[in-house]
Design goal:
alpha+beta, 60s Ribosomal Protein L30, Chain: A, Phosphoribosyl-aminoimidazole Synthetase, Chain A, domain 2, 2 domains, 13 strands, globular, binds adenosine-5'-diphosphate, binds magnesium ion
Length: 345
Amino acid sequence: MSNKDTRTEIGEVGEFGLIDKIASKFTIQNRETLTGIGDDAAVLDHGGQELQLVSTDMLLEGIHFDLSYMPLQHLGYKCVAVNVSDIAAMNGMPKQITISLGLSNRFSVEAVEKLYEGIQYACEDYGIDLIGGDTTSSPTGLVISVSVFGSAPKEKIAYRKNAEENDIICVTGDLGGALLGLQVLEREKEVYKSNPEMQPDLEKYDFVVGKQLKPKARMDIIYELSDKKLIPTSMIDVSDGLASELFHIAKSSDVGIVIYEDKIPVSKESYEAAIEFGLSPITCALNGGEDYELLFTIGQSEYEKIKLHPDISTIGYVTKKEKGINMVTKSEQVVPLKAQGWVHF
Ligand code: ADP
Ligand code: MG
């Protein structure tokens, strides 16, 4: 029991501190529960060849999306994609989703139908079934909670915890784009608020805006890894920023990490947008959220399988824990990384 006179602000412990606090109070009671709190998805064993994967994510209006620039169809797609991304991060296949909605009276039937057009499109894209959910009223705003169920053969599951010293660190796609898309959209919103006659000119920013509004789960990479018979030693999806995810892998695997600044993939479009906003492109890549790329580690002997892949970058390697989590800068200085991540509290 906590002392009734003490009050700790959530901001003091942070999102992950709070989750650790919750997790520490629970012990697993069923032998079917192989992995509970602490990875991208829980892992369950109900017998048979395949293990089951379960993950859940909630999106809140005003925190995760702003309907003044987020079309409802895109939002529907995104809330499925971000959940599928957590199954991808376990090297699994998504199979089913449930979707629960909290709706204020601002929303019409037509608006909900638009949301579900995007959800349906994502279900077809990822080959998953919508199997249920819940619908309730909300005092203000839109709340969307999605749970996703998937599966994978036991030997294929990629946890956060099995990275080993000397493994190579890989990341898919490019990073920082979603954060920069958000900066563009926020700026246009301010311009629009001060002068509604002004039409936003977003064409130049199509790429980064697309990264923010239409993220894809990298299931394409999961299929390719499977074709190449390459099982990552560890994997996580980049939802809170590269630095934060590297910390999760390092902490779960009890290892250190070194990455190289000049190897971090940043697209030309993101680079230019960052400079325009007076931001460091690398800081955007390290600390921006919502890229939904995959960060994974592989044994040295597997390097040949990915070395020529156009959409996988090798950014560093796994070290002993004592070495910490560092980045070698372009000027060859070794600087410790900070996991700022995306702070909601
Ligand atoms: P991700 O970014 O991959 O969605 P999170 O950082 O949200 O993962 O969560 C990390 C782990 O903590 C997951 O195993 C998740 O299920 C668990 N978790 C998050 N919030 C809670 C909560 N309120 N109660 C119990 N477990 C939680
Ligand atoms: Mg995740």
